[in-house]
């Protein structure tokens, strides 16, 4: 290799700045006039040899499976001159590197559950003499699932049609990739339980490694029993953790009013007064009925009374006739859903 005086001076300054070694042996370097302050017109230096060229960088780095302790990475190999791939991992501040063969497109890893890990993947090209060059790195951050885990679930449809619920969604327990059961619970009692195994398109994309077959669907009629009810969907746990009531709704089933109780019949000499305890909060009113044949048949006495306010209060009704001994009375509560009679109370 030949340099003129100016080129040799530039080489001398560059070598001094970077601390480069241009001669083969230290004694020869010390005596090389080309490295001095007044180099000759022409210098001859050793050829440094071939230099490694960085290969093309990988693209499309993705975590195609993220379980509790296992991560599976995939990428596209865009290099044609690489001699290996390097996977650089940072976990809890500790860095490790793994060398993979040329043309590699994947990397399986085992990490603690519930960890956040950074991965850097690059192509490496090495030539003789140990001279290597790396491409730029593809980077991804991955968080694994905790262990043990309770199920997670989401509703995708929540509709009410008349007296029925239409509910769809998905449920997964991180402790298993298999489908888990989802139970229907009414007023604290399990009514049915079925595997959440229907296909939910795109589910594996947001939960890599668990697959798409974790869907469920229910068409549930409301209870016909009058009163307030709670309907829940429960994801059934497997392994450690606990069941998850991920959806609950409260609704009221209307019906006939509750019956009056604690009837008391009092003869004033000119009328019969019947008092009772009101147990209904949805009656439209009530009326008094009388039977002269021990309850075989009943006749309404007077007109309908206005409802008693609240629940638990005392109401009354009056029969202004003078019925014979052994006459029976009852209170009939009424609303739009029907009538509810009380037990009879009879005179001596």
Structure explained in plain terms:
The N terminus is likely disordered. A hairpin with an 8-residue loop joins strand 17 and strand 18. Strands 5, 6, 8, 9 and 10 form a 5-stranded antiparallel β-sheet that branches. Strands 21, 22, 24, 25 and 26 form a 5-stranded antiparallel β-sheet that branches. A 4-stranded antiparallel β-sheet has the order 11-12-16-15, with no helix packed on it. The protein contains 3 helices and 26 strands. It folds into 3 domains: 86 residues, Immunoglobulins (Immunoglobulin-like); 102 residues, Immunoglobulins (Immunoglobulin-like, Sandwich), CATH 2.60.40.10; 87 residues, Sandwich (Immunoglobulin-like), CATH 2.60.40. It is rod-shaped, with a radius of gyration of 44 Å. Helix content is 7%, strand content 49%. The protein is mostly beta strands and 348 residues long.
Please sum up the structure shown.
The protein has helices at residues 5-18, 26-30, 203-206; strands spanning 2-3, 43-44, 59-66, 70-76, 84-91, 94-101, 106-110, 116-127, 131-134, 138-143, 152-161, 164-172, 181-186, 189-195, 198-199, 213-221, 227-235, 244-253, 261-267, 272-277, 285-291, 299-305, 314-319, 328-335, 338-341, 345-346. With 348 residues, it is mainly beta. It folds into three domains: 59-144, Immunoglobulins (Immunoglobulin-like, Sandwich); 152-253, Sandwich (Immunoglobulin-like); 261-347, Immunoglobulin-like.
